[in-house]
C-alpha cells in the first residue's frame, strides 16, 4: 500500500482538484505540503461546487483528516475566510477535520502590500499578488512569524520588531509608509483565537499515523514547471513544487513517499509571464481556452493555451520521479481535424530534447511539432476505453511514448465519475 503524492506536471491548473478529490475518498489523511492561497482547486461533488485555495481537497469529506504542512505559507485572514465560506456551504471545518503545522510561516498584510507594489513595475513576473513570495523570503531570511508564535503573544513584539527592520527599509525604498510594531501585533493577535485550535506538531502526527498503516495523500499546488529550482526561473513560484517537497514540507522522510502521480492536460496552459514554447496565440489557442474554460480559479485571469508539449512533461516526469500520469481534459480536443504535439526544440540552429535552464535560451527555443489525425466522436463523459474513439486512444498512447510514462488515469469531464482508471496509485 503506497502513500501517494500528486503533483502538477505542467505549469499548474491541470485539474488536480478532481483527481485529488477522487483519491481522497480512499485516503485517511490529505496533506498540503507547499505553496499558499495562490493555489486553486475546484471540486464538484454532486450538485455542490467547492472552490479551495489553501485548504486541502480532503477537507470537504467526512472522516478525513486534512493537514496544512510546514512547507505551506499561511495567510490567516484567507484561511479564516475559507473556513467560514465552507461553513456556509454546510462543511464544518473543526480541529477534528483540519490540523495546521505549528512551524508553518504566516503571510501578513505587509507581504501582500510588498508584492503588489513590486508587480506594478516593469519587472513583474505575473504573481497573484497574495504575498506568497515575500513570506517565503522572510522564511529563508530567518525573520518570519510562524503559526506557533501566535501562542506566545508576550514574545511576539520582539519578533515583529526584528522583521520590521527589514520591511520598513524596503517600504522606504518603495515610497511606502513605515509600519509600527503595534499595528502588526494587533493584526496577529486578532487571528490567534481562530488559528491556534488547529495547530499541531505535524511531523509527529504523520509519523504516528503512518505507523498505524493510514493512507496518506500528499497534495501539491501549482506545477513542476513553476518550481523555484526546476521551473522556468524567474517566472516561477517561490517554493519547490516537485514531488520531493512532499517529504520536506510535511516533516516525513522520503521513504514515506510511495507513488507519484503527475497531472497534466491533453494540451498545455500557463498563467502569467514567462516562456511557453507551444503557445498558440491565435484562433486555435482561443478555441482551446473557450472550450476548456481556461480561467484561473483564484484570479479569474485567462490562461495562455497551446498544444501538448511532450518535452516539458518528459522533463517533469524525471524531476518529480513520476510513476504515472493522470491525463485530463481529453474531451477539449474533440472535433479537431488534426492535433499537434511538441516533440522537441530548435535552439540556435540545433535540435535539443529538453528545456534549457537559461532564461534567455528558454525565450529563444522554437517548438518542433508532429501532427496526428483528430477525431470527430465525443470523448466527453467516457468511463472506459471502449467508450473512446480509436483515434483518441491512439493519441493517448502516443503521449505515453513521448513522455516515457504510462497514463494511470484518464479524465474526460469535470465530473469525478468520468474517469478511466488504468492503475490505482494506492494499490501499487
Automatic annotation (TrEMBL):
What PROSITE patterns does UniProt report for this protein, alphabetically?
Answer: ADENYLOSUCCIN_SYN_1 (PS01266), ADENYLOSUCCIN_SYN_2 (PS00513)
Binding site residues for Mg(2+): 13, 40
- What are the binding positions for substrate in this chain? 297-303
**Database matches in SMART domains:** Adenylsucc_synt
One GO cellular component this record assigns the protein to is: cytoplasm
CDD domains listed in its UniProt record:
AdSS (cd03108)
Q: Give the required cofactors.
A: Mg(2+)
**Entry's SUPFAM superfamilies?**
P-loop containing nucleoside triphosphate hydrolases
Q: Which UniProt keywords apply?
A: Cytoplasm, GTP-binding, Ligase, Magnesium, Metal-binding, Nucleotide-binding, Purine biosynthesis
The catalytic residues are 13, 41
- Cite the Gene3D superfamilies for this sequence: Adenylosuccinate Synthetase, subunit A, domain 1, Adenylosuccinate Synthetase, subunit A, domain 2, Adenylosuccinate Synthetase, subunit A, domain 3
**Reactions performed catalytically:** IMP + L-aspartate + GTP = N(6)-(1,2-dicarboxyethyl)-AMP + GDP + phosphate + 2 H(+)
Q: How is the cofactor bound?
A: Binds 1 Mg(2+) ion per subunit.
Q: Which residues bind IMP?
A: 13-16, 38-41, 128, 142, 222, 237, 301
Instruction: Name the pathway.
Output: Purine metabolism; AMP biosynthesis via de novo pathway; AMP from IMP: step 1/2
Report the top EC class in one word: ligase
- Function summary: Plays an important role in the de novo pathway of purine nucleotide biosynthesis. Catalyzes the first committed step in the biosynthesis of AMP from IMP.
| Subunit field text | Homodimer.
Q: Which family does it belong to?
A: Belongs to the adenylosuccinate synthetase family.
Q: Spell out the protein name for this chain.
A: Adenylosuccinate synthetase
Amino acid at each position: 500500500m503506497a502513500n501517494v503524492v500528486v503533483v502538477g506536471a505542467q505549469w499548474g491548473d491541470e485539474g488536480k482538484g478532481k483527481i485529488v478529490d477522487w483519491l481522497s475518498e480512499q485516503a485517511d489523511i490529505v496533506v498540503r505540503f507547499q505553496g499558499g492561497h495562490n493555489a486553486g482547486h475546484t471540486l464538484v461533488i454532486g450538485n455542490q461546487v467547492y472552490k479551495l485555495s489553501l485548504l486541502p481537497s480532503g477537507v470537504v469529506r467526512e472522516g478525513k483528516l486534512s493537514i496544512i504542512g510546514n512547507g505551506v505559507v499561511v495567510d490567516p485572514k484567507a484561511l479564516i475566510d475559507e473556513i467560514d465560506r465552507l461553513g456556509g456551504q454546510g462543511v464544518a471545518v473543526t480541529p477534528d477535520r483540519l490540523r495546521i503545522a505549528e512551524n508553518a510561516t504566516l503571510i501578513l498584510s505587509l507581504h501582500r502590500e510588498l508584492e503588489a507594489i513590486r508587480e506594478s513595475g516593469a519587472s513583474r513576473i505575473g504573481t497573484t499578488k497574495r504575498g506568497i513570495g515575500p513570506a517565503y523570503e522572510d522564511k529563508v531570511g530567518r525573520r518570519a512569524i510562524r503559526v506557533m508564535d501566535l501562542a506566545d503573544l508576550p514574545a511576539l513584539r520582539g519578533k515583529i520588531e526584528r522583521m520590521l527592520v527589514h520591511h520598513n527599509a524596503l517600504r522606504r525604498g518603495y515610497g511606502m509608509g513605515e509600519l509600527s510594531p503595534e499595528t502588526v501585533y494587533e493584526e496577529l493577535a486578532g487571528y490567534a483565537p481562530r488559528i491556534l485550535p488547529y495547530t499541531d506538531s505535524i511531523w509527529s502526527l504523520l509519523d504516528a499515523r503512518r505507523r498505524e498503516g493510514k493512507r496518506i495523500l500528499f497534495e501539491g499546488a501549482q506545477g513542476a514547471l513553476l518550481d523555484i529550482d526546476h521551473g522556468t526561473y524567474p517566472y516561477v513560484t517561490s517554493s519547490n513544487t516537485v514531488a520531493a517537497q512532499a517529504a520536506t514540507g510535511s516533516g516525513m522522510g522520503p521513504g514515506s513517499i510511495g507513488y507519484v502521480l503527475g497531472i497534466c492536460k491533453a494540451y498545455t496552459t500557463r498563467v502569467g509571464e514567462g516562456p511557453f514554447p507551444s503557445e498558440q496565440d491565435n484562433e486555435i489557442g482561443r478555441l482551446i481556452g473557450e472550450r476548456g474554460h481556461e480561467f484561473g480559479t483564484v484570479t479569474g485571469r485567462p490562461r495562455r493555451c497551446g498544444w501538448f508539449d511532450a518535452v516539458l512533461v518528459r522533463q517533469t516526469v524525471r524531476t518529480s520521479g513520476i510513476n504515472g500520469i493522470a491525463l485530463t481534459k481529453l474531451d477539449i480536443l474533440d472535433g479537431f481535424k488534426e492535433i499537434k504535439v511538441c516533440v522537441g526544440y530548435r535552439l540556435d540552429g540545433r535540435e535539443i530534447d529538453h528545456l534549457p535552464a537559461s532564461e534567455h535560451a528558454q525565450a529563444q527555443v522554437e517548438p518542433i511539432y508532429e501532427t496526428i489525425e483528430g477525431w470527430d466522436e465525443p470523448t466527453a463523459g467516457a468511463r472506459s476505453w471502449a467508450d473512446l474513439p480509436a483515434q483518441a486512444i491512439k493519441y493517448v498512447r502516443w503521449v505515453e511514448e513521448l513522455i516515457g510514462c504510462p497514463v494511470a488515469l484518464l479524465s474526460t469531464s469535470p465530473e469525478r465519475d468520468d474517469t478511466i482508471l488504468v492503475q490505482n496509485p494506492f494499490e501499487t
